[in-house]
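How it folds:
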Amino acid sequence: MKLGLHYWNYSTPADPAAIAPTLAETAKVVDQAGFSTFTVMDHFFQMDHSGSAAEPMLEGYTTLGYVAAMTERVTLGVHVTGVMYRYPGLLAKTVTTLDVLSEGRARLGIGTGRIAVPLAQRGVPVHGIDISEPMVARLRGKPGAERVGVTIGDFATTTVDGSFALVYLVYNTI
């Protein structure tokens, strides 16, 4: 079994001066303990159900660059990169740079940023992978959701039949 750590809260401890050393120590422990993956979130603000928008939320790829310098083995990724947050060329350059500097440890997961249904309604083919059946059920309750293909599973290990130029990983598309 492979274990990964998703680092989503920069508010513990509460002192902003402790963010960098806490992140570094956590990343080192995860790496030395043999975890396979270290991921962070890609949000401008902390999610409502996880805290307050006033809480710190670091930019994901800059954070991973810092983590890459602190670790040797663990793979690195933004859990789901919001496809609308960055220009495609800049995102490709950012992830490629992380991959080079981490010596091949970068992983890219791209998500729709909660826009799967609007994209599908505009004719963009969308097929997602989601581990949460209740979330897929909520998605299916939305008008137009029948146009969004979804495979249940973990996006890191699930395969989908077909050939895709781009796969939108449907993650909390509510």
Observations:
- The first strand starts at residue 4 and ends at 7.
- The longest helix spans residues 19-32.
- Strands lie at 4-7, 37-40, 75-78, 81-82, 106-107, 110-111, 126-130, 148-152.
